[in-house]
Amino acid sequence: MTLPHASAGHSVRKAVVPAAGLGTRFLPATKATPKEMLPVVDKPAIQYVVEEAAAAGLEDILMVTGRNKRAIEDHFDNNAELERVLEAKGDTARLEAVRSVTRLARLHHVRQGDPLGLGHAVLCARAHVGYEPFAVLLGDDLIDERETLLSQMLDVRARYGGSVVALMEVDPAQIHLYGCAAVKPTAEDGVVRVSGLVEKPSPEDAPSNYAVIGRYVLDPAVFDVLARTVPGRGGEIQLTDAIQELSSLDSPGGPVHGVVFTGLRYDTGDRADYLRTVVRLACDRPDLGPEFRSWLKEFVKDFTATLPESDLEGRRLAA
């Protein structure tokens, strides 16, 4: 079944959050706990993503999950027993924090089944999304709550139609870690026309240093493309390959524009970046930051003092 083209101006109401990954980089912590539920200070990572979608006005959110992901559903559901305990203790602050999670959005869940890649996870949202444009938010990329990236992307979609991806300039040596966009300038500062996409190219083959990060606003025509997309890199159905097809001039789901993001982004995709994210967000919290930053300064000073000179010199050269 071919979906009709959703024209510019058609409002975006729904978001899709793929959350079916195995989280193997964080084993054994993710053996029984979804990686999306790992805490970032005092909230699971996936809650930041849902809050971002809700702040941009997207209050209908579909989670694409897999096996052993029940904890995600439970987190956004009511917990009457816990609420009664907190209420009896008079702990109104924590009670409100728990209740507010359930009010963020209307959440729905569908299972991906076979782990066939991000493109397949998005395709699993077809029945829920229908003929509407929709946003996709990946949980590995946390965007600072003070940023307006998603709202900017929705605005670009409203004015130009088609699909929109979030782009970020990276060190060319790191481009092999990302999908990479070939771009053309537009008359609008911070907005480019995407003429092609390559999944994780080698630096010498990369068309630019613009990396695709985990925010998309997609025309529903992407579903037809995904349905016929053959597995690519890693034996998975790549969302990048489908967006590449949408970027052609005659595609019914195009054009594809990119919003160049220069703000605060926190990568929780591997252990080191996850730890940096926790430290950065903790330092920035008004309730935790002052004391934590003071402790961190003392810790770094004391830790550095215990390192041998050879290690210190190596760290200076690495910096």
Quick summary:
With 319 residues, the protein is α/β, with parallel strands linked by helices. 37% of the residues lie in helices and 22% in strands. β9 and β10 form a beta hairpin.
Shape: globular
- The fourth-level CATH homologous superfamily is Spore Coat Polysaccharide Biosynthesis Protein SpsA, Chain A
CATH topology: Spore Coat Polysaccharide Biosynthesis Protein SpsA, Chain A
Terminal Cα separation, in Å? Answer: 55 Å
Number of strands: 13
Count every helix, treating DSSP H or I runs of 4 or more residues as helices: 12
CATH class: Alpha Beta
| Rg over C-alpha atoms, rounded to the nearest angstrom | 21 Å
Low-pLDDT residue intervals, each spanning 5 or more residues = none
Number of domains: 1
Average pLDDT confidence is 89
Please trace the helix and strand order, writing H or E for each element: EEEHEHHHEHHEEHEEEEHHEEHHH
The major sheet is characterized as:
5 strands, mixed, barrel
CATH architecture: Alpha-Beta Complex
Q: Could you tell me the strand content as a percent range?
A: 15-25%
Q: Give the fraction of residues assigned to helices.
A: 25-40%
Strands side by side in the biggest sheet: 8-11-9-10-12
The helix/strand class is alpha/beta
Write up what this structure looks like.
There is one protein chain. Helix content is 37%, strand content 22%. With 319 residues, the protein is α/β, with parallel strands linked by helices. It has one domain (14-285): Alpha-Beta Complex (Spore Coat Polysaccharide Biosynthesis Protein SpsA, Chain A). The strands form three sheets. It has a five-stranded mixed β-barrel. Strands 2-3 form a two-stranded antiparallel sheet. It has a two-stranded antiparallel ribbon with strand order 7-13. Its EC number is 2.7.7.9. One of its GO terms (molecular function) is UTP:glucose-1-phosphate uridylyltransferase activity.
